[in-house]
Amino acid sequence: MIPAKNRPCIEKGIVSFSHDRFPSRAQADATSLAKARREIEQGKSGVSHLILRACDDSIDRLKFLFLIHGIPIMCYALANVLRSSLKEIVVVGSHETEKILRSYLDVNGSNGKKISFVQEDISNLSILNTLSLGKNSLDLDLDEMILFQPGDLPFLYDMEKTLKDEDIKNHNLILWLNSRQKMFPDLEECPESEFVRRNYHYRGIYDGGKECHDLKEPNIYPINLSRVEMDIIEYLHSSRKDGNIFEAGIKKAASLPTRLLRLIPNFIHHWKHFRRDLKELRANRDYKFGAHASNFHQGASILLNTPFITKLHDDPAFVSDVDALEDWEDFEAMTDFAQRSYGDNGLAEIHPGGQELLRFKEKAMPELKKQLPLYADFPAYINQVYNDMEMPGVPYNENGDYAMPPDRKIFAEMGCRWYRNKCKMLQSE
What residues of the chain score a pLDDT lower than 70? Predict the structure, then answer.
């Protein structure tokens, strides 16, 4: 097994503003609609009309370029990493994302960080190639973990527990899983406290069999790129959605006979104990895959041939990515509520980089609206996307102002309150 003896902190990161593309807009829309219709039919709480790119788009429907409160999503991610303890950051993205990156740095500076940009390879938009592009721009030692993060996590501004985690030294891959129970501990008594609605396909038994958590796949990856076999990461990442990761793991293990033999005790433990133990903890067994954390850590370490661990966090920002129109509108509604509640600087009440983001909006967005077709009339563009996706209404009125649906207000208010308290806590520290 490849050992882990890493430095105690992560100081370098790769932020991806790149995403795969469908061959045509018709195929992309059909995929998004099929998923949403299936979730509606199944009564899922987290219905998602996915935001998907297509090769024949006249305007690139790249989710990182979408505007929240008139500011590109990618700028929120930039504000987050620039305020963190990271010292060197590689950004991978499209020509448009490079233009926005340069504008953001011109307005707000780099906060002493070393920032590099790498153009995405449109002929190969896999996560494996994105990681490779980023890695080639970093001078990494064998004992150095980096943070890989997609750029669609607008409010993930509390990053230090990830960058300075005590398990960095002894593991070459850490998955910060999204636990519904930890993020929303008052869910049972106060359902509206779950202001981020997602589908949780996994179940994990932690704390020596005492706790059961509803889990969703991670959105950030502390990883030692010199120690982890990247073809396995690509294989598992591509199968992580909708609970398919277990099948992917078994198929990959089958191609590695020696490791498969070593995994047999873990499979036996899982088949013998998991369903029984889960039933004792929770009657609801509607899930795609589950495991005892300790058994999973051991088995995954064997499969990956390097020390691996999962961690659970209590921050909804980790699960709040922008994969779908519903996700985007969650943030548009919350920032709109913040402005209505706290005035023109309301964004700064819920995001510690709010002042920098508002400065960028004032100084850079007028020119970007002239340069990038997506921003020429963003409200009209999004309204048309909503119509194409058969959404029940459109987000903007005839004046181009966001019109919050009544059923979103309570979630916007809860989210606004949570992030405002988070900002106050960080300021006090």
Answer: 232-251, 253, 283-285
The token pair at 129 is 């190639």
Q: Do 5 and 171 contact (CB within 8 A), yes or no?
A: no
pTM: 0.94
Q: How confident is the model at residue 283, as a pLDDT?
A: 67
Q: What is the largest CA-CA distance in the chain?
A: 64
Three-state secondary structure of 198-243 = CCCCEEEEEHHHCEEEEEECCCCEEECCCCCCHHHHHHHHCCCHHH
Count of CB atoms within 10 A of residue 170's CB? Answer: 12
Angstrom distance (rounded) from CA 141 to CA 145 = 9
Q: In 3-state terms, what secondary structure has residue 308?
A: strand
- The pLDDT value given to residue 239: 57
Can you give 56-106 as a three-state secondary structure string? CCCCCCCHHHCEECCEEHHHHHHHHHHCCCCCEEEEEECHHHHHHHHHHHH
Q: What are phi and psi of 401, to 5 degrees?
A: -95, 145
Tracing tokens 């509604």 back to the chain, one arrives at 333
Which residues are within 8 A (CB) of 407 and not within 5 positions of it... i.e. 6 or more apart? none
How many of the other CB atoms lie within 10 Å of CB of 9? Answer: 16
Mention every residue, 6+ apart, whose C-beta is less than 8 A from residue 208. Answer: none
DSSP state of 300: H
How does strand 289-292 pair with strand 202-206? parallel
